[in-house]
Write a structure and sequence with these properties.
The chain is an all-alpha fold. It is 76% helix and 0% strand. It contains three helices and no strands. The termini are far apart.
């Protein structure tokens, strides 16, 4: 289950980067927050595959929080 959530976080972060660039948003800090969220989601996925479910859950939660900062009005 954690592997699926980690993969979902990675796909959503990468998808949001593509969508926001395609709609004409200027590249800024939000790209970094989505990219860090994708990297952390991938790390959580790797941890989950290695049997570290608690660490994977914690890292995936941090990935979601960091990625959600990309949608904040301060970073637009």
């Amino acid at each position: 289950m954690h592997v699926a959530f980690g993969g979902l976080v990675v796909l959503v972060c990468l998808g949001l980067i593509v969508v926001r660039i395609a709609t004409g948003d200027a590249v800024g800090v939000w790209v970094g927050t989505y990219a860090v969220g994708a990297v952390l989601g991938g790390w959580g996925l790797a941890l989950a595959r290695g049997g570290r479910a608690r660490w994977a859950f914690a890292v995936i939660c941090v990935a979601v929080v960091v990625a959600s900062l990309g949608d904040s009005p301060a970073l637009r």
